[in-house]
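Trying the structure run again after the queue cleared.
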Amino acid sequence: MTRNKPIHAPAPAVTRPGVYACGADTVNAILEAALYLLIEEGSSAFTLRRIASECGLKLGNVSRHFPRKEMLVQVLLEELLLPSEALVEKSIRKAGMSAEDALTLIIEGSLDEIKTKRTTNLSIELWAMANHNEFVADRLEASYHYVHQLLAQFVAQLNPKLSAEDAYTVSVFISASIDGSTMLAGYGKPWSSLMPQMKGLAVRSLVHLVKTITPAELRAFTR
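Done. C-alpha cells:
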C-alpha cells in the first residue's frame, strides 16, 4: 500500500535536457510537438520521427536531446503533472479556504478540466500508455496518490470521526467518481452536454457523503 507516504508531489525522475538557451529552445519545440501529437493524434503517433517532422527538425536533432522515446515520455510527463499537482494546493492554501470550499473547488475544477480536449485526450492516452509502460504507470499512481492525500486532508476536516485510513478511502472514491466521467462526459464524448448537471450532482452528493459517512458504515461495506 502507498497511502502512508508523506504528502508531496513526486520528485522529477529525469533531468530536462537543453541547459543552454539554444538547446532549451529546441527542447521546448520538441516537447510542444510531442504534447500536440499526443493530444491530437494519440500515442500511435508518438514516435521520434513523427515528432521531428511536426516541429520541423531532423530526426538526429531530436534524438540528440532524447536518445530514447522513453526519456521524452518521462520529461513530458514530469512537466505535465508536477505543476498542476502543486498549483491546486498552493491556490487553496493561499486563499485560506474552508475544507468544504476547498473540496468543492477541487471537484468543480477537475470536472471543468475534463470538459477540455487536452485533459480528456491526455487522460485516455496516458492510461493506455500505462498498460505497457512501467514508468508511466508508476508516475500516474504517484500523481493519484498525491491527489488522494490532498483530498483526504479536507475529508478528515469535514468529518473528524473518520480515521486517516477512512478519509483516504473516501478520497479515492471521490477521485474515481470524477475520473470515471471522462469516458462518458469528457470532451467529444456522448454525454458531454450533461456535464453542468453532473458537476452540480457531484458536488452535492460527494460533499454530503463526506459530511455524513460514518466509520461503522465504511466497515459494513467490507462484509
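Residues 1-12 have pLDDT under 50 and may be disordered. Worth checking whether this holds up in the mutant runs.
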